[in-house]
Amino acid sequence: MSTLDWSDTLVLNQPELDHTHEEFVDLLNRFGDTLDRGEDALPAFKALLAHTEEHFAMEERWMAATGFEPENCHSSQHAMVLNVMREVVRYAEELGDREPMPIVRQELAQWFPGHAEMMDAALVYTMQQRGFDPATGEVKEPALEGATAGGGCGSSSCGH
Fold it and tell me: What range(s) does the Hemerythrin-like domain occupy (predicted)?
């Protein structure tokens, strides 16, 4: 059973990010498959965590390059997700408690599409507006001094 299906609704038309997102979905599904088989899912979860750490670090670099506020909704969500994932690993390793794993599987599967659709889409839009090239790090249209690219959540409800 697939935990999360990759579909066109997850495509943001930014090749590097789309590829990274597809890898995330694949690793989430591998983790879920391992759980479904009743095997030790910790190694698969750690692979998902390692990928997610690099995935989010890449997005954080892009946000910094395009002028997102250092403390924004998008970054805050990344931090919260990573904190939960790291706690799942800690529980498994230090306490021998694997119970949070199936819970976090479902939570990640529910969270990711909305995050991609709102927050990551706002990042891609800002990258396009600034003429940001992720391969070189070059920004053709830097943010104006004192102006921000936004809170990073694609919503006016975020505090700035």
Answer: 16-122
List the domain boundaries for the chain.
13-139
Are 44 and 61 in contact by the 8 Å Cβ rule? The answer is no
Q: Could you give the CA distance from residue 123 to residue 119 in angstroms, rounded to a whole number?
A: 6
As a whole number of angstroms, the distance between CA 70 and CA 77 comes to 13
pTM tops 0.85: yes
Per the CB < 8 A criterion, the answer to whether 22 and 30 are in contact is no
Rounded-to-integer distance, Cα 146 and Cα 131, Å:
19
Q: What string of pLDDT tens digits covers the 160 residues of the chain?
A: 789 999 999 999 999 999 999 999 999 999 999 999 999 999 999 999 999 999 999 999 999 999 988 778 999 999 999 999 999 999 999 999 999 999 999 999 999 999 999 999 999 999 999 999 999 989 998 765 544 445 545 444 454 3
In CATH, 13-139 is 1.20.120.50: yes
